[in-house]
Amino acid sequence: MVRLPADQLASAIEPIVRQRVPGASQATVVNWTPSPGGFSTETFLFDLEGLDDGGSLGLVFRRPPEFQILPDYDLRRQYLVMDRLATAPVPVPSVRWIDAAGGELGAPYLVMDRIDDVVGVSDVPPYHEAGIFAETDDAGRATLWNGCVDMIAAVHRLDPQAYRLGFLGDPAPSALTRFLRYALGWAYGDKAIHPVFATALDWLDAHDYTPERVGLCWGDARMSNVLYRHDLTPAAALDWEIAYLGDPAADVAWLLMTDWISSPLPGNAQAPGTPTRAETIDRYEHAVGHRIGNIEFGDVTAPLLLAVAMVRLNRRFDIPGVDLADVCARRIEVVLGS
């Protein structure tokens, strides 16, 4: 199979959507636009105009990136998570179809409905500096943050078995540690792993445990993966490519870690109005109805997982004198007090 260049996708997918989307037999693909977010998946937004009823439809196209930042990328995994959560009380995008074999466009891809009339929080530039989070007041920042916490809690209240999510794998913390060790080795290739990351992996081995609860972990639980209504309440949860089964406390740790990592404020401080770690955990515990799990373990796994992507981006951009993964090492040093 030959992977189609991005500039050929819009014309190539038009006859496919005419066949696959009911009432779109004469529709045209317009407004084909790359999504500004993330490197983990190549994403395009587009419209179908000229539907049989005279209307239009907003859709999203996603395929694996040409340069992978995480190993063993599985588009079908995220498709199945969203498809099986379609009836859940957690709002996710409605998936239309997937070509898992990649025969139609030279690479696997999926198409899902676009969610319109919403706003998002950006990662670049940091949401602390620009966009709705920076531009609102302290109360607005608390509303955005708490909305993300509430979405995380809603995910964790789900019964993974009821939604047939057992395919997400071994929920043991030791399985996550093994994956991180493998993934960092894959990312570094023939280079030595950063000594702080090696120390952190050894710490995880020494602090293995049996979770009190196992649930669906969103995997990438952060404000930029929540779509918000204009009143700043959460509307949908996005980006399920690294969803897994495990101790749900890891998602709260991920939220706290990504906020710290992205903060340009002195000492990586939270923006004014943002609830503290203790307040975040308290709100989460009230929302799920029980105490949080082993968040300290998640405090270590979170920057290690992000480091995999950062090490890969080092290879992609090759900026002299810059190590994008260094901030992950600094976070681990803060967490472990070293």
UniProtKB/TrEMBL annotation:
<dbReference type="InterPro" id="IPR002575">
    <property type="entry name" value="Aminoglycoside_PTrfase"/>
</dbReference>
<dbReference type="InterPro" id="IPR051678">
    <property type="entry name" value="AGP_Transferase"/>
</dbReference>
<protein>
    <submittedName>
        <fullName>Phosphotransferase family protein</fullName>
    </submittedName>
</protein>
<dbReference type="Pfam" id="PF01636">
    <property type="entry name" value="APH"/>
</dbReference>
<feature type="domain" description="Aminoglycoside phosphotransferase">
    <location>
        <begin position="33"/>
        <end position="267"/>
    </location>
</feature>
<dbReference type="InterPro" id="IPR041726">
    <property type="entry name" value="ACAD10_11_N"/>
</dbReference>
